Amino acid sequence: MRRTVFNEDHEAFRETIRAFIEAEVVPVYDEWFAAGQAPREFYDKLGELGIFGINVPEEFGGAGLDTHKFEAVLYEETSRAGVQFGGSGVHVLLALPYIKMLATDEQKKRFLPKFVTGEEMWALAMTEPGTGSDVAGMKTTAKLSEDGTHYVLNGAKTFITGGVHADRVIVCARTSAPSEDDRRFGISLFAVDTKSEGYSIGRKLDKLGLRTSDTAELAFVDVKVPAEDLLGEEGKGFYYLGHNLASERWGIAFGAYAQAKAAVRFAQQYVTDRTVFGKPVASFQNTKFELAACQAEVDAAEAVADRALEALDAGELSPAEAASAKLFCTEVAHRVIDRCLQLHGGYGYMNEYPIARLYADNRVNRIYGGTSEIMKSIIAKSMGL
């Protein structure tokens, strides 16, 4: 089936990214993996390449486009090479939509030029040690000072991707108690400068997968946040968070599909080169059937991911459709990557092989951005169940 989601501009971008990965990432990726993070200066290179500015208005140094298709190409190309771009994904996919949607003109002038170049890297701090999917249960507080010039931020966050290298973090905090009829009321968003006094980075978390993306615990002790760094209106943070969940879940869905596609490629290469009993592993019927079944699943996931991408670009991707795409693509990737690792035999368990890293990287897709169980609940609700 001919794929129609990408045009010549996207394919030209693909060639540029593929060459960049081969030159700048593949030769040093083992060092990043061992260090548990990409180096901070790598993000400057991504800024120079223009990756951070694709969806930023031209007046702030960006390309002025309004599409997720270039991000989709990035997912495919990084997966194809078996690499990750550190924690930079949250900078564009998670943080930028909030800046574009909520920032005042003054804030955009302050934030976006440095965002585009990578001079200021952004992250999103929502999850807390005691609250995962229950965002409304957060305990971090931001109290407005008596003179109204700043908020005083206290609390802690965990699982913050990009948290080690971030220069600004969008922090979700309670500015007032929940109302009697709405426990989600009273949450606000702040663009917090990580150099602020009282702001500290705790452990860089030791994850099973996504080893090159820095994920951290954050703590706030009487951090003074200027009032002009409030994003949007006070008390409406929960609803802002919900507004961007569809794009986040599409990103996870598309990334999972891209990983599954890459896994088939890795497995096909391996079984073609690997000889057992005097014959290539690819010559055995079981190998052919396993790869054929995996390819069929990848084809289906590609169709779902592409359809969700078109709907997202058109502004028509509903929460239930995003949940469905995430559920389907992440479950497909789980099955496909597991079967492709099996075809590698013992070598599939070695981290020097990309399939092993892919196996570990993929596991979180069914957890973050809302677990598979949460996705099922959203879909069921949309069905009237």
Walk me through the structure.
The chain has 385 residues and is an alpha+beta fold. It folds into 3 domains: 8-117, Butyryl-Coa Dehydrogenase, subunit A, domain 1, CATH 1.10.540.10; 122-235, Beta Barrel (Butyryl-CoA Dehydrogenase, subunit A, domain 2), CATH 2.40.110.10; 239-383, Butyryl-CoA Dehydrogenase, subunit A, domain 3 (Up-down Bundle), CATH 1.20.140. The chain is 48% helix and 15% strand. It has 12 helices and 10 strands. It has a 4-stranded mixed beta sheet, covered by helices on one side. A hairpin with a 5-residue loop joins β2 (141-144) and β3 (150-161). α4 packs parallel to α8 (245-273) and α8 (245-273) packs antiparallel against α9 (285-313). The longest helix is centred in the last third of the chain and has 29 residues, at 245-273. The relative contact order is 0.11. The model has no long low-confidence stretch (mean pLDDT 95).
Looking at this protein, list some descriptive labels.
385 residues; alpha+beta; Butyryl-Coa Dehydrogenase, subunit A, domain 1; Butyryl-CoA Dehydrogenase, subunit A, domain 2; Butyryl-CoA Dehydrogenase, subunit A, domain 3; 3 domains; 4-stranded mixed β-sheet; 12 helices; flavoprotein; Acyl-CoA_Oxase/DH_mid-dom_sf
